[in-house]
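Bit of a strange request maybe. I'm writing a small parser for structure token strings and I need a real example to test against, not something I typed by hand. Could someone generate the tokens for this chain?
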Amino acid sequence: MRTYISRGHDGMHSPFTIAPSQFIGRDLGTVTLLKVLGQGSNGIVFIAFQRTLKRQVAVKILLKGPHTTEHSRRLFRQEAEMVAALNHPNIIPIFEMGEADDCYFQVMQLVKGNDLETIIEKRLKNPLPTRRTLPAGECIRITRQVLDALAYAHEEGVVHQDIKPANTLMEERSGRPLIADFGIARTVQAETRETGVIVGSPLYMAPERVRQEPSDHRSDIYSVGVMLFKMLAGMLPLAEHDPMRLLIRKTRDPDSLFTTKPSETSAAIDSRLEAIILKAIATDVTGRYQTCREFDNDLESYSGHM
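Reply from user aminoacidic:
Good idea to test on real output. This should exercise your parser:
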């Protein structure tokens, strides 16, 4: 049994120290924390027992930092209200969001399955070269469902800001992707903006976010484009692998991030699919897909001729 986790290997370290043992047995809202599922750059995830409905749930804890401000508290409350209203089959439902003296927390459905990052990594270890990446049709199916969920969220005024394979949980029985971490990413960003610390996952972060410029839903589109490229290629042809060097390159010369074109990286990527990927990850937001629906329409058209 797994739920989502913001993995440290593709993100920056959190500026907050988390001691998981201090939370075991603790009550937060209507839940009691039972067991640690994992720890990542944005917090720690627990299996918990919801006392009111007598069921197991997943709980993500985000510790408050030394620079917690009234603005970040207000932002978290606003995000909580918006995220709680989201109702989409590809978004993990949130049952409760709250705040304690030392942390924020989200209570959500506990889903059986692996995150997409884990699935991609396991495929790379397959002894058969032809089985080391997900089939192109499967990659497109997953991407289109993620885009549909994000389009819905964007229309509701919610931007995710940390889309990546590790935040995309694949439900074991149905195979559907579920996006996690809504409402957390923007709160983390608010917590650290004044310190100059960049919080997020450098590989999937849009260049405008790395430069700490104003960003919107198109930053999510960039992240989905990189995720699609990663699914198809298995391993991305990166000029830099160190997170800090990656951030510097995205700031100074984002067009040089990848050393080869998508079509030169995987036989599954033809010229038409390459054009879709390159438009999604355009460094200039005006050259990028302007909406998830637009991105999805091109993938639908492409898949119809596969």
